[in-house]
Amino acid sequence: MSGDVRERDLLEREPDDRVRVLDPDGTVVDSELEPDLAAETLRSMYRDMRFSRRFDERMISLQRQGRLGTYASLAGQEGSQIGSTYALADDDMLSFQYREHGAIAARGMPWEYLLYWMGHEDGNAALAEIDVFPLNISIGGHLPHAVGWAWAAKLNGDQRASVVHFGDGATSEGDFHEAMNFAGVFDAPTIFFCNNNQWAISVPRERQTASATIAEKARAYGFEGVQVDGMDPLATYVVTRAAREKALEGDGDRLRPTLIEAIQYRYGAHTTADDPSVYRDDAEVERWRERDPIDRFEAYLRTDGVLDDDRIDAIETEIEDTVATLVERAEAVEGDPTDIFEYTYAEPTPRLEEQREDLENLRDAHGDSELLEDE
Ligand SMILES: Cc1ncc(C[n+]2csc(CCOP(=O)(O)OP(=O)(O)O)c2C)c(N)n1
Ligand SMILES: [Mg+2]
Is the separation of the CB atoms in 178 and 142 below 8 Å? Predict the structure, then answer.
């Protein structure tokens, strides 16, 4: 990176002028933008990307075996999630939708994270310890909260940014627009990070908005939007770092939010409950796989001598062990089915009370194992 001025320029590009540092075969295409990261940091980013991909495979396999609930796959989106998270401070507040396991991995995924996907609320609670808000299934619902948190941090004089991940589909929700407007007016130090993976379940990007880019929507709210190659971890890193600086140090006398549109692709199904073959072609998936973020980053790191076969073998072995330990610890926790009646209302409604009683009566009469066998 050749200095602050150049880094700031990043955010002043036209919204459709996509920032890219590495091309799909790992060659540096913009050496001025190449961040000066220590070999250890680069290897750690690579490890987290590999971990996330492996975690994903394992979670899908567990779901197929009935050992995990419905799961949202991240494969293809590692460069965006890990590159951007490495540009943050550990105590910047991170909010996400449900697919950003890579961002959680970059923060040091707690084993309890798996519990959420196994139906235990404790999985969400553990995220608070790494400054991550609970997972959000209600599309766009977390954006106003992320901005509110940013505004509070600013009023408290904290040097902490709020980073909020959401999908292309979320930009059609009112919450997105309200959050963007509020952040623009109140100078809330927010980084809006849109993981544009081309699809919102079966709705393609072209049907999501008539705007030429998602990034350009920021202009309507008085701040900058930038498109970045979301499958290039170095590009997402430099863009997020520039946005963070602007959120906390300001532009002139104002702290400014930024909207980052990271262009990427979800290789797999929307979730384990989806069949993408009914709405998209395999050829499309193959075209995006040619831009794979892990292959690209590995090629770059091998050229620089930061990685070699031995180091990669060691990383693979460590990842296998780590994933196995995470699963083992999470599976050792026994759930309580009546948990499903908790956590939505402070006071349960009469109807929920009635349903809880029905479930308890059934369990008393038959026992959990018999109830499960009957299914
Ligand atoms: C408010 C709301 N409306 C609809 C849904 C159903 N829904 C679940 S995921 C999804 C698509 C979201 O797409 P996007 O924001 O692009 O994120 P992605 O899944 O692609 O990561 C929808 C519509 C929901 N969860 N919440
Ligand atoms: Mg999407």
Answer: no
pLDDT tens-digit series, residues 191-245:
999 999 999 999 999 999 999 999 999 999 999 999 999 999 999 999 999 999 9
Q: Which two tokens stand for residue 204?
A: 């393609």
Q: Return mean pLDDT, the chain.
A: 94
- In the DSSP assignment, the letter for residue 348 is -
Q: How far is the CA of 213 from the centre of ligand 1 (A)?
A: 19
Q: Is the CB of 165 under 6 A from ligand 1?
A: no
Nearby residues of 51 by Cβ (< 8 Å), 6 or more positions away: 105, 319, 322, 323
Question: Would you state the pLDDT for residue 249?
Answer: 92
Catalytic residue selected from 165, 266, 291, 296: 266
| Nearest alpha carbon, ligand 1 atom 17 | 167
The amino acid at residue 187 is: D
Amino acid identity, position 73: S
The pLDDT value recorded for residue 232 is: 98
pLDDT in tens, 323-372: 999 999 999 998 888 888 888 899 999 999 999 999 999 999 988 777 77
Cβ contacts of 328 within 8 Å, gap of 6 or more: none
Q: Ligand 1: which of 77, 97, 139 to mutate, judged by most atoms within 8 Å of the beta carbon?
A: 139
Residue 17, pLDDT score: 77
Q: Where are the domains of the chain?
A: 4-335, 338-374
Q: What is the DSSP letter of 172?
A: G
Lowest mean pLDDT among 97-101, 184-188, 340-344, 357-361: 340-344
Distance, CA of 10 to CA of 143 (rounded, Å): 24
How many residues are there in the chain? 375
Percentage of the chain beyond pLDDT 90 is 86
Residues 6+ apart with CB under 8 A from 204: 198, 280
CATH of 4-335, one of 2.30.300.10, 3.40.50.970, 3.90.1150.10, 3.40.50.2020: 3.40.50.970
Distance 270 CA to ligand 2 centre (A): 9
Nearest Cα to 35, choosing from 232, 206, 216?
A: 232
Contact 84, 260 (CB under 8 A): yes
